[in-house]
Design goal:
This protein is an alpha+beta fold. The protein has eight helices and seven strands; from the N terminus they run ββαβββααααββααα. The strands form two sheets. It has a five-stranded mixed beta sheet with strand order 1-2-5-3-4, covered by helices on one side. α3 runs parallel beside α5. It is elongated and about 65 Å long.
């Protein structure tokens, strides 16, 4: 993908090895480049040492974050070579990077909603897959999902926003699934509720 990223941010991993990196979030989903979560992983994490290419990784991030591109650099080449063979080191790097990606997406959703709307439009299926695949981060991923609501028919809302608008005595949340909002609105049960 030769387009400028939709968004990018930095990430730091402290310890052995100590890494500095950049996370790139693309503009759109390119199925040939990123693959669906059940397909083979593309190598989306690149590691450099003193700005010289060392390795690429395909399974460092969870499959549902396979669209994110990560470039790490370290100045400690010997430590990198010694520690990359250790599963615990790779797991630590993966956990920190995954946490940073999710935190950054939450920050973008909060502070740059127009950018997040573009992101969500392209990558919502991946996040939905993440809800099922990543039990440890499920609550954070759910906060990133957006849904149409009868209160805001033309824009999507988060589950947190929806819950904040619920009536004080409302205990249940109803939802309908369909291909389009107009298709759902034509359903007889929805017409009775609205």
């Amino acid at each position: 993908d030769f387009e400028l990223p939709l968004h990018y941010c930095t990430v730091s991993v402290r310890g052995a090895p100590s890494l500095e990196g950049i996370l790139y979030f693309p503009h759109h989903d390119n199925l040939e480049a990123y693959h669906w979560p059940w397909c083979e992983h593309e190598k989306n994490v690149m590691l450099y040492s003193s700005r010289h290419f060392v390795a690429e990784f395909a399974n460092l991030l969870p499959k549902y974050l396979g669209f994110v591109k990560v470039i790490f650099n370290t100045e400690d080449e010997q430590t990198v070579e010694n520690n990359l063979q250790q599963h615990s080191t790779m797991q630590r790097i993966a956990d920190i990077t995954t946490e940073k990606v999710l935190m950054e997406l939450q920050r973008v959703a909060r502070d740059l909603p127009h950018v997040y709307a573009k992101f969500h439009g392209a990558f919502a299926p991946y996040l939905k897959m993440g809800v099922h695949q990543d039990e440890d981060n499920r609550a954070d991923i759910v906060r990133l999902l957006r849904f149409y609501s009868s209160a805001k028919k033309n824009e999507m809302t988060s589950l947190d926003e929806y819950v904040s608008r619920m009536k004080q005595d409302q205990k249940d949340l109803f939802y309908f699934v369909g291909k389009t909002v107009s298709e759902i609105e034509q359903h007889g049960v929805v017409q009775k509720i609205l």
